[in-house]
Amino acid sequence: MFQRNIKVLQNVTYLLSKNGSFLRHSSTVPTEKVAQNYCLNLVRQHDKENFLCTLLLKNPERRHALAIRAFNVEIARITGTVSDDKIGQLRLKFWEDTIGRLHRSDNPDHVPEQPVVQELKVAIDAAKLTKRYFQRLISSRLNANLRFVTTKQLEEYAEHSVSSVLYLLLEVHGVRNVHADHAASHLGKAQGIVNLLRSIPRQERRNVVPVPQELLIAHGVSQERVLRNKRDDKGVEEVVFQLAGLANQHLEKARALWGSVPKEARPVFLPAVTTGRFLERLRRVNFHLTDSSLLQSDAMLPLAIYWGNFRGKI
């Protein structure tokens, strides 16, 4: 059984590396398949780690999960692809209005000819996805500068921008219970904090770091010092250590609650594998974010995700 599953994973990897997609855009391919393929490629290109986790879901849940993650990619990319904040807000307003229309019952057949919207329509209708979680994802992107005064504000941002995706994935699996939601909340906060830590080495152009001001003040560290991230800067190291510790606390809480999550929805929590591996790699380099080993991709991650899913552990 194990060898057969490894063979399947190898075949998936081959297909992805060969053409970058499972389906090619062609006039002979049904529109539905084109939309599915678009979502798959969008997530694969811009959210690779979560893409690897999503591949291990079963259909139709995998299809709906890719639609949700493609939507999240679309709105997350807006602030990085526009030079004018007003244009970004208009694009977010488009998605807000679209989500509203997709949840309306008075005109269910009118769907804009946009691949992500088309796939979202299928997912929303099939799983009765909660509108509020989509709205939280959109509103979280209004904080384009990622400026936080307190760690509580940082946790709230992670809750809205990451946990909301996990709530939707649980709904895709037909799971709506307090234990699963509680675990998803903690995992989303852990993953969200890690995402922000990983973004710091790429923040030079914006001259801002997503570190709460209360931490910077407590350790007498400026944003410029965090951006420079010199190896012998103990103040910066302590700030990163505290944020990594906060992420790890949420990760451990999610793992403690994971046993109460219904079996069919447990693969939703595979991002815990990627989060945990990054935190361990960060610890090994003494919380130096610009260490070359951290800036490289984790070559063993695909196997680690598969092994976690196979063993039923995160």
| Helical residue percent band | 55-70%
Strand content: under 5%
Query: Which regions contain 5 or more consecutive residues with pLDDT less than 50?
Result: 1-28
Oligomeric state, counting identical vs distinct chains = single chain
Distance, first to last CA: 21 Å
What is the mean pLDDT? 87
**What count of helical segments does DSSP give?**
16
Summarize the structure.
Helix 9 packs across helix 10 (178-199). With 314 residues, this protein is mainly alpha-helical.
Descriptive report:
It is a single chain. This protein is 68% helix and 0% strand. The chain has helices at residues 2-19, 31-46, 48-55, 61-76, 78-81, 85-102, 115-127, 131-140, 151-172, 178-199, 213-218, 223-228, 234-257, 271-284, 292-295, 301-311. α2 (31-46) crosses α7, α6 (85-102) runs antiparallel to α8 and α13 runs antiparallel to α14. It is globular, with a radius of gyration of 20 Å.
What are the SSEs and their pairings?
Layout: H1 2-19, H2 31-46, H3 48-55, H4 61-76, H5 78-81, H6 85-102, H7 115-127, H8 131-140, H9 151-172, H10 178-199, H11 213-218, H12 223-228, H13 234-257, H14 271-284, H15 292-295, H16 301-311
Helix pairs in contact: 2-3, 2-4, 2-7, 3-4, 4-7, 4-9, 6-8, 8-9, 9-10, 10-13, 10-14, 13-14, 14-16
